[in-house]
Amino acid sequence: MSNNNTNEFLLPQYIYDKNKQNSKETYYHLYSRDSSHSYVFTPTQESVSYVIKKINKTDLIVNIGLKFIKIAYKNPKLLKLIPNINLVELSIKSKFKFDVAILSHRCVLISLHKKKVWKFPTNENNNYTKKKLSDVNIPSKVNVPEIYVNNTNESEYIVEEYITGSVLNSIRKQKNLFLSAFENLSHLHIDNLQKFETTDLITEIESYNDLKPSDLQLCLMIAENLGLPEYVYKSNIHGDFHTGNIIQSKNKLYIIDWENYEFDYIIRDIYRAILIESYNTQNKGLFVNMVYGSKKEFYLIQEEIFNSSFEYTSNYENRFEGLPILYLLLELNRIPKDSKLNRFIYEILKDIQSEYLADGSYI
Question: Which of 269, 283, 309, 318 is buried most deeply by CB count within 10 Å?
Answer without folding.
Answer: 269
